[in-house]
Amino acid sequence: MGREKMIVSHKILYGSTAMLIAMAAVPAAAQTDAAAPAAEENDGGDGVIVVTAQRREEALQDVPIAVSAFQGEQLQSTGIDGLRQLSQMAPSLVVPEGGSQSVPYIRGVGSRNITPGNESSAAVYIDGVYQTDKTGILLQTFPEVESIQVLRGPQGTLFGRNATSGAILISTKKPSQDFGGMVEGTFGTDDRGARAYITTGLGENLAFSVSGFYRYETPYITNRNPSNGIGKGTGEEETYGFRANLLFESGDFSAQLQGNYINGYTTPIMAMQPAPGSSLSVGEAVSGVDIRNPKRAYYGEVPPEVRYDSWGMSLHLDYDLGDVAISSTSAYTRSGSGVQLDLDLSPAPVFWFDTDLKGRTWQQELLVSSKGSSPFQWLLGGFYINYRDGYTQLDQYVGLPVPTKLQPHAIPQRLLELSALGLGPTSGLAYIDLSTFVRIESVGLFGEASYEFGQGTKITAGLRYTDETATLDEDNGKVTYVPDGTGGVIAIPQTIGDVCTADPLCDGLSTGFSELTYRLVLDHKFSDDFLVYASYNRGFKSGVYNISSLSARATEPETIDAFEVGLKSQLFDRKLTLNLAGYYYKYDNLQVPVVDPATNTQISINAAKATISGLEAEMSFRPDDRLTLNTSFSTYFKSEYDSFPNCEIYRPAGVGLALATNADCSGEDLPVTPNIMASVSANYKLPLGAAGELELAGLLSYTDKFDHATHGFYPAGVDAGGNPYPAGEGRAPVQKALTTLNLSATFRPLKDNFYVTVWGRDLLNQGDRVFRNMQTTTFGYSTALGRGITGGVTIGFKFGS
C-alpha cells in the first residue's frame, strides 16, 4: 500500500475514533422518550425507511448491517438513472464499465471477468429474483422502481453464492386497487425517452399494473473511417422494455405474477492505449493511423455493436399464518446477446470478433420465518437454481511477428487482405469456431436465528450450505484456409470436438463445488435511536469454468472472512441520522482476470490472499419537510495482496504488441479501490404560493483515482523482433479522480398533477477523465471516454390516486 494512502487513512482513523467516542456519550442526552411516537409522526422527522436486508421487513436503523437505501424519487431527482450512476451516492460502491457489461465492486471486491457462467461478486436481485445476467440490469430504467438497497459486506448466509462483496436489492411497486399512474417524456441534448406506468383494480381481489420505457442516446464518439458503415459515430444506445404485474390478495394469502421484456442496442465506445513500453498500439503500427487523435474518434474497421434482449416471468406467493410467514419465489428467464468489436480499433484487418451469447435460468426459493414480538426470531430457507449459459465465437490466428488471434466474419476475404498487406501467413490461416456452454445447478439450505436478552442486547447466528455442479457442453471445430494460387482460398475443415478432456490441467466435463458460509452478530440498542453492532460473516464466490479458453479449465471458489463494527444513530428528535461502519477482510483464493496466451481471451485464475480494511459513514439531515441533506464517505485503510506471486502483467513484445508475463504482485494495491469516495446531495422544496411548488435538487460526488487492473514490474529484455527494452511497469492507465455535479429544478403547479423538470448532469464536464472501459490485452489497453456534460427537460403527468 502506498505511503500516501497510509498517511491519509491514519488521519481518518484517528478522527473517526474520536467521533465514535464522542457519539458514545450522546444517547443519554439525545434519545427521545421511550413513549415517543414513531419517526414518521415526528414534526420534521424523516419517515421510517424499511429494508429487507435480513429477509424480513425491518427499519433500516434496527438492522446490524451496513445498508444504503434509496427511494425511486430520490434517485431520479439527483440524476441517478441506473446501476452505473449509483456509485455516486453509495459509499464503497464502484461500477466500472467494460464493453457491454458493468459489474459492481463493493469494498474493493468484484470481478471484471464476467464470461458465461462467471457471475458478479455482488448478488443483484429484482423483486426477489436473482439476476444471473448483468447486461439487462444496466438497461433497466423502469418508472415503477420503488427502492434500491445496497448491502455492503459478504451476504453468504441469507443471499448465498456469489455475494462476497454484498448484494443489491431492487424493488418495484406492487399493483394497487386504486386507479393511478404516470407518463413522462424527456428531451435532452444527447438523449430522448419516455416512461409510463398505470395500475388499476380488476375486481375485489385483483389488481394489475403495466409499465414501459424507451430511451435513446445519440453517438458522441466521431467516426473517422467512413468505410466501416457506422455512420456518425459510436456511443449510441437505444433501449426499451415492458413489465406487467398481476396481484391477487385474499385475506392472509397473496400471489403476484410478473412478466418482463427488455431489448437494447448500443455501439460501445472504445479507444486503444499503447502497450507498456510501446509508443504505438498494434493497430497504429500496422495501419499507420494515429487512432488516439483526436480523443473522441473511432477508426475501427467494423462497426462495434452490442444487441441484447431478455424476457422472464416470476411468481411470488406469500401466506401469513399468524406467528409464521411462508414465502415462495419461482422464476424463469431467457436472454440472448450479440457482440461485435474491433479490438485493435484501427482501419487495418488485425483483430475483431463476433460473438453470440444465450442463457436461460430456472430458480426457486422457499422461506419460512417467524413473526411477532417474541425475543426469539428464526428463519429457514432453501434455494435452487439451474441455468445454462454460453456462446458461439469465431477465432482466427494470423502470422504477425508475434502470433495474434483474429476473429472476422468474411474469413477468405480477410486472408486475401492480410496477404496484400504482407501480413498473411504462408501456410494458411486457422480459425477455431467455439461453441461452449456451461450448465450450473446449485442447491442452498440456510437458516438464521436471533435472540434478544437483557435490555436491548441481541445475538444472531446463521448458517448456509451450498452445493453445486458445473457441467460443460463443448462442440468445437477448426477450419484452415490456404491460398490456392489463383487469388482464391481453399478450406480444410477439421473437427476438434471436446478439448477439455485432452488437457491434463482440465478438471473434466463436470466439476462440483460446496461450501459452508456463516454469520454471527452481536448488537445492542442503548435506546430506540442508538444501535451498535459487531459481526463476522463468511462469504464465497463459486468456482467457474473458463469457457472462453479452449481448455476450459476450472477456477476454484474464493472465500472471504469479514469482521465489521458499526453504529446507527438518530439524533435531535430524529432529524439527523448518522451511521458508521468499519470493516476488516481476509480474502482467500481470489479469482482474478488474466489473458490466456493461447487464445488471447480473458480467463480467471486464483490469486492467493489479500487484506482489505476501511471505514464508511452516511449522514442524513432533515430539519423540516422542505429540506433534506444527505452525505456519504468511504476510505480504505488497506487494500493489498498479501501474496500474489503469479500475477499477470504485460511487457513489450514489438510492433505495438504486449506479451503477458508473470510477476510477483504481493504488496500491491487491489484494483478498483479509490482511497476516498464522498458525496453530498440536497433537496429543497420551495413553496410558490398559489402558483405551486419548486423543488431544487443537487448531487456533488467525488471518487479518488484508482487502478483498473493489478500492476507490477517487468525486467529488461529483448522483444520478438530482437529489439532491447528497459525494465518498466506493466500498468494500465490510472482512472483519474472524478468530481461529478448533477442539478435539477422541478416545478409542480398547485392544482395540477403535471410537472416540468430542467436538469443537467456532469456539469463539471468530467467526460474526458472517465475510462468507461478499461481492459488489458495483447494489443494494449482498451479505454473509452465518458459522455460529458448533458442537460434536458422532462415533462410528466401523474393521474389517479
Automatic annotation (TrEMBL):
Any GO BP annotation: iron ion transport
TonB-dependent receptor plug domain ranges (all copies): 60-167
Subcellular location: Cell outer membrane
SUPFAM superfamilies: Porins (SSF56935)
Gene3D superfamilies membership: TonB-dependent receptor, beta-barrel domain
Taxonomic superkingdom: Bacteria
Domain TonB-dependent receptor-like beta-barrel per the UniProt entry, residue ranges: 277-757
Signal peptide boundaries: 1-30
Keywords linked to the UniProt accession: Cell outer membrane, Ion transport, Iron, Iron transport, Membrane, Signal, TonB box, Transmembrane, Transmembrane beta strand, Transport
CC terms in the record's Gene Ontology section: cell outer membrane
Membrane topology classification: Multi-pass membrane protein
Record-linked PANTHER family: FERRICHROME IRON RECEPTOR-RELATED, TONB-DEPENDENT OUTER MEMBRANE RECEPTOR
Family: Belongs to the TonB-dependent receptor family.
UniProt-recorded name of the protein: TonB-dependent receptor
Organism: Sphingopyxis macrogoltabida (Sphingomonas macrogoltabidus)
